[in-house]
Amino acid sequence: MRSYILSFSCPDRLGVVARYSSLLADAGAFITEVSNYTDPVTERFFLRCVFDDRALNVTMDTLSQRWQAVADELNATWVLRASDDLPRIVLAVSAQDHCLSALLTKWRAGALPAEIVGVVSNHELSRGLVEWHGLPFYYLPVTKETKPQQEQEILSVFSELDGELLVLARYMQILSDGLCQELAGRAINIHHSFLPGFKGAKPYHRAWERGVKVIGATAHYVTADLDEGPIITQEVRPIDHETTVERMIHLGQDVEANALSQAVRLHCEQRVLLNGQRTVIL
Amino acid sequence: MRSYILSFSCPDRLGVVARYSSLLADAGAFITEVSNYTDPVTERFFLRCVFDDRALNVTMDTLSQRWQAVADELNATWVLRASDDLPRIVLAVSAQDHCLSALLTKWRAGALPAEIVGVVSNHELSRGLVEWHGLPFYYLPVTKETKPQQEQEILSVFSELDGELLVLARYMQILSDGLCQELAGRAINIHHSFLPGFKGAKPYHRAWERGVKVIGATAHYVTADLDEGPIITQEVRPIDHETTVERMIHLGQDVEANALSQAVRLHCEQRVLLNGQRTVIL
Amino acid sequence: MRSYILSFSCPDRLGVVARYSSLLADAGAFITEVSNYTDPVTERFFLRCVFDDRALNVTMDTLSQRWQAVADELNATWVLRASDDLPRIVLAVSAQDHCLSALLTKWRAGALPAEIVGVVSNHELSRGLVEWHGLPFYYLPVTKETKPQQEQEILSVFSELDGELLVLARYMQILSDGLCQELAGRAINIHHSFLPGFKGAKPYHRAWERGVKVIGATAHYVTADLDEGPIITQEVRPIDHETTVERMIHLGQDVEANALSQAVRLHCEQRVLLNGQRTVIL
Amino acid sequence: MRSYILSFSCPDRLGVVARYSSLLADAGAFITEVSNYTDPVTERFFLRCVFDDRALNVTMDTLSQRWQAVADELNATWVLRASDDLPRIVLAVSAQDHCLSALLTKWRAGALPAEIVGVVSNHELSRGLVEWHGLPFYYLPVTKETKPQQEQEILSVFSELDGELLVLARYMQILSDGLCQELAGRAINIHHSFLPGFKGAKPYHRAWERGVKVIGATAHYVTADLDEGPIITQEVRPIDHETTVERMIHLGQDVEANALSQAVRLHCEQRVLLNGQRTVIL
């Protein structure tokens, strides 16, 4: 028995639920999970469903073709994929490896529904850890001058490895607008603040100066507009007046790793659908 | 335009989603929200959907009759109700009124999707607050000897007021098995601990003795088996070694009021479906 | 036996702890609680201690005089007060009464270490609730033109009632710079966002637009620089894509009431010391 | 400039704060941090202070001797240690390595104020990861019959490595009473439930059966009474009806690693003082 995930969004209208579910029922596709949501403001419909083939009476190819026809009619954006066909992830990292390490540990433990296929970095520091996990490590140093070229190399590696998602696991370089557009919806970043507070550089230093009592981290899709991409997850942690910037950086490592890991998991399970500048998590 | 909430559960089988949604689509019922869930262990299907009548082509009576036929076929337990037909709540309270006060405040602010219709208490203390809110207050004192009779009076008040849900808002009497059964699925209690830790009496005292670092509160349906009913919500709050029992009691008031208010809201929005000793929150 | 709270801050130097504690020990003041903190950046020392008079060998007047001499030498800012001499609070409220109601309920339950002495409002709506609690209610309507005069009336009421702390419990008027300065360190506001995110008006609307996954509330001292005052407490609550602005407003009521109640309690227990634009909570 | 941490507890009495602080002031020890606490029930005093030698006018040996005399008089239990003299930790692990990996990552990043000196395991699985971090790995398999002998080997390794703290980072063997007593106050365990709920085996399975809405993890000192040792930290995470046992196990990994890392940090910074079956965290 094999299971499949179908996720789509389309303009809302009468009978959308009946439309897709009758198609599946007719084909003998057995639904085991469904979530859907209609945005009352944009009147857009979002759905994620999981079904299996225990009673399927057509081939998956036939089912896909039938669905394609309905999807065209509904004007839907969609993904249909076997749940054991794991998304291929490339990680990007700079000097700090706590997010990298958390992702690799979860992946090795079978707790991440994805295939990590390689790591790129502008530092050599993480090579040992990455290679110990049996993964290729690409050292791609960067300077102001070589940035266009280095970004080209990132894209080449991503393409060569058949990457489907680029995870910026504390990769401390600002991506060019071109790269952001190239990877729209296919790149997730972790920002070490509770956005929209403390956008930009050195958020922990500014949190200390402002005297906040809670710090946080935000995982979001990368867009050309820095730290403004659609938010997937946010995690927070209380602090107090004794929490120095250095301690915030240490405490923040857990919060960042958790927020990013959750976001990657949600994306890979096809639970994250874009709704303009916002996300629907199903 | 009027909206309706349909919630049901039934044994899972191929095509349940198609079955109910086709029925709604044929009748012109416009779905605006759906959540469903299949328990992979019990293979039971749970659904909550909201639809409106903007395009309805039959009367609601006809729709109900059609649905009744499908529900019988699916062997479903269900509720179908207009979303502006607010559930009628009776509150029970003892000496401490923080949960009572929170519920009344939310109700008065329009933040509770319910109609509070009266308050019963084994103390006179809250009469003023209740009557100030324009609600009838029933003083029903109780002793060991008069308990059967007093519980009868509670039921009479509940029935007289057309009550649909009894909320034990820190009502510090243990209900008899008979009353628990009578009100099965229609009575919510707040327990001032993070169940299953510290079941029974004086949970904050025992939390202090054990030296825990987090306290909590649990809202659950009342069952004859004390503090073992299906859990609806749990809220927690960190404490430290300086937190005396008295402070826990004060901090706990917020946690209890929040957990109970959330549970009442979820119940009244028909979001809570029973799944054996567990709940599904849709 | 009576207990006292001494809190002070001063430039740090060798022997501060020995200095104040020897003075107390010599007078037979029995210390039961102490917290202190030195800001490593500003090199300022902060202390809060509670002692009782079980073994006191001088009068409290004598002790105060001795302490005054030491405080002068240390260049300290300080407060020394019996813990049963509760701070007198005046509340200000507009149309929404959830924070008002939470504070009144806690106060009546003995869970707030303060004396609430009156309520001012630019609306008549809360009169009934306030008067039911046996408190004077001052209706002080305000227009753009009458604002200076109305603020004068607030100050008169505050002074007449011997107010020591003004709590803006969702008082939706921006105070003038003059009033802010007049009440510096003696006025606490609740802002319905997780500052510094969404400063200013309509934070829940902007939170919805940005698609954040957590909302919050911030209690802070009032300063002329709007929403920039020293932060005392921040509380948060997760939300998701289904959370409409209206629901945020309802959920936010709990978060706001909790954050504000905590802040008032901390202030009244002399636990909040100012450290520039930041607070030290002891 | 070097800094030192002094922590002690003793029966409370008049002038304890003056006594230790005068001693430090006389020696020119510059206090930078202090927390203390008196348990109002047991009337025991607890203190942690950090001081530096910028103005020290005696040797540390002399200061220690002077303090020893005062400590004897106060009947105090104490530790005085340079803050750069990091505690030596031995980790014990079984098949699951998420806690191990989190501790190693933090240690390598300088975020753990301790020296990890070796890892023992009853499985070979983590050897690669441990050796990649440059640490000795001791494979000590165990059966029912060889348990006494294997525990002897653990103690030998611990002693050989000059271990000061044994951290059970998901070590899934129950230690014998003898070993628990031998390591009293020097061994920290992580239990994957929110104690006292779900003591013993398979807590996530039982959490699922009970239908709780929040899961947690508890780090505590090891005692002969299983899962009853003094609690250091507890962390929680909300779940819902969709959370399968397998997902709980995955989500729990973050909670467990965070709770354990925090507990180890607090212990190594001498912030955890025992107060009977409870802890004081300063």
Automatic annotation (TrEMBL), chains A, B, C, D:
It comes from the Bacteria. GO terms for molecular function: formyltetrahydrofolate deformylase activity. Pathway: Purine metabolism; IMP biosynthesis via de novo pathway; formate from 10-formyl-5,6,7,8-tetrahydrofolate: step 1/1. The keyword Hydrolase applies. InterPro entries: ACT-like_dom_sf, ACT_dom, Formyl-FH4-Hydrolase_C, Formyl_transf_N, Formyl_transf_N_sf, PurU, PurU_ACT. Its EC number is 3.5.1.10. It is an enzyme of class 3 (hydrolase). One of its GO terms (biological process) is 'de novo' IMP biosynthetic process. Keywords: Hydrolase, One-carbon metabolism, Purine biosynthesis. Pfam families: Formyl_trans_N. It catalyses: (6R)-10-formyltetrahydrofolate + H2O = (6S)-5,6,7,8-tetrahydrofolate + formate + H(+). Residues 5-81 form the ACT domain. Belongs to the PurU family. NCBIfam families: PRK06027.1 (NF004684), PurU (TIGR00655). Catalyzes the hydrolysis of 10-formyltetrahydrofolate (formyl-FH4) to formate and tetrahydrofolate (FH4). This is Formyltetrahydrofolate deformylase. The gene is purU_2.
